[in-house]
Amino acid sequence: MRDFRKFMASDVGASARYQSRRKRRIRISIDDIEPQSKKMSAADRTAFQTAVAEQLTSVKRSTFRGDVALKLDLATASKSPPHAHTIAKNLLDLLGDRMDGVIWPKKSLLYADDSQIQALSVMCRHGTDQPNIRIEARPFAAMLDDLELAGAALQAAESMESHYEREREDEWVDTFRDLIRDEKGQRKALGNKMYEAYREMVRWSAQRALLGRSSVNIPVLGWMYGLPRGIPTGFDKTMWTGLIGDSKLRLQVGELPIATGGSSAFKQRVSDEITAFKKRWDWVISPLIVAVALEVVVRPNPKTPPAVLHDLDNIVRDYLIPGIVPGFGTVSDQRWTIDFAELRERDPKLANAWGPNPTPPAGTRNGVTRYEVWRLPAVEGEPGFVSVALVADIDAKGDLMQQMDEHISDWRDNLSDDSRHPWQRRRPTGR
């Protein structure tokens, strides 16, 4: 027993528990159904639910009863696909109540209600050769365990070099500021064509640096959930949420509406915050030449009645996307940020490598590359809030869920050779 407790408290034990949690995740992949909005045909809706039910049955899994962390990874092949947030709305509904005619022993498929979703990530790629819908779900409690472990893994891997690298990235914002302040002198020194090319290169780097700092990283996200457990950090979760609420790199749009008639006022706050953010940062982000994702952190007011608790996807679809996308001119794919006409002139070989139709269908241009939403627990006596970051999405880092897995994977790879062998009960020695 002592050996077992020692094992459970060790890095090896933490690694084994993580592997066990990974095995319990539900993964569903559907290749032959086009991701669609609510206009999806009845036949396709039935086919989708049937595929979900069959895959749940094959892995002997049932409907989630508690809170869920959910990822949707979508690929469309249609020439006129809907936007990602409208696809997500449809699929999230279809993952709930089972339709008549779908063979499944429960009234609901993956969950009873999408209000169970406490963390949501949606990514969509348009213009692919084949459609695909990938779903990954796990208990939210397991997600918090993964978050805690990822934070510890990052702490173990942190180096001064990574700190200096972040500082070097931040210098691009100052470089761009100096460049545009001395535009006349720089144009004279470089010439108009060279100056404009150099300015765009520096603007790209400055946007990458600025919007890279806006994200909540894994340790801070953990601290906002009160992690790591049992270890004092000097700050409680209330203080950390206050910290992101004061960030000038995020849109701070206040509390979600909980009373009748509050939606209009909240939408106006979103609009006002977009205007204020642009006034503060327009000199570097207008126009946006990097693709961006949305990262949303929500804390409800503790007095919010359960009946009016906003579903995470609805927050993005109803309140944020309608203002943010046109307000900032965000695009749904990095390819929309490439001037292919200029590229063909400058580097025909590279341009040809993208093919004759390098961009997705034109109707998909306006949007974001992906979005993720995290709901914090309400804090008694503290107001709710919605905090939004436009995150540069050009380094293939993926969402926070993906980053957790990658950091943990790196950490597990670096465990000692002895720790690669799980603890086993000792066999009795022979006589």
Characterization of the model:
The protein is of the alpha+beta class and 431 residues long. It folds into two domains: 15-142, Holliday junction resolvase RusA (60s Ribosomal Protein L30, Chain: A); 161-413, no CATH class. Helices cover 47% and strands 13% of the residues. It is built from 15 helices and eight strands. It has helices at 2-9, 11-24, 42-58, 84-94, 140-157, 160-181, 183-190, 192-212, 218-224, 237-245, 262-285, 312-328, 340-346, 348-353, 400-413; strands at 26-30, 68-75, 117-125, 132-139, 251-252, 292-299, 370-375, 385-392. Strands 1-4-2-3-7-6-8-5 form an eight-stranded mixed β-sheet. Helix 4 (84-94) links the parallel strand 2 (68-75) and strand 3 (117-125). Helix 1 crosses helix 2. The longest helix has 24 residues, at 262-285. It is globular. The two termini are 23 Å apart. Mean pLDDT is 90; it is low at 417-431.
Distance, first to last CA: 23 Å
Percent range of helical residues: 40-55%
Indicate the radius of gyration in whole angstroms.
24 Å
The biggest beta sheet, please? 8 strands, mixed
Summed up, the helix count is 15
Low-confidence stretches: 417-431
Succession of helices and strands: HHEHEHEEHHHHHHEHEHHHEEH
Structurally, how many domains make up the residues? 2
Side by side, the strands of the main sheet go 1-4-2-3-7-6-8-5
In terms of structural class, how would the helical and strand content be classed? alpha+beta
Quick take:
This protein is an alpha+beta fold and 431 residues long. It has helices at residues 2-9, 11-24, 42-58, 84-94, 140-157, 160-181, 183-190, 192-212, 218-224, 237-245, 262-285, 312-328, 340-346, 348-353, 400-413, and strands at residues 26-30, 68-75, 117-125, 132-139, 251-252, 292-299, 370-375, 385-392.
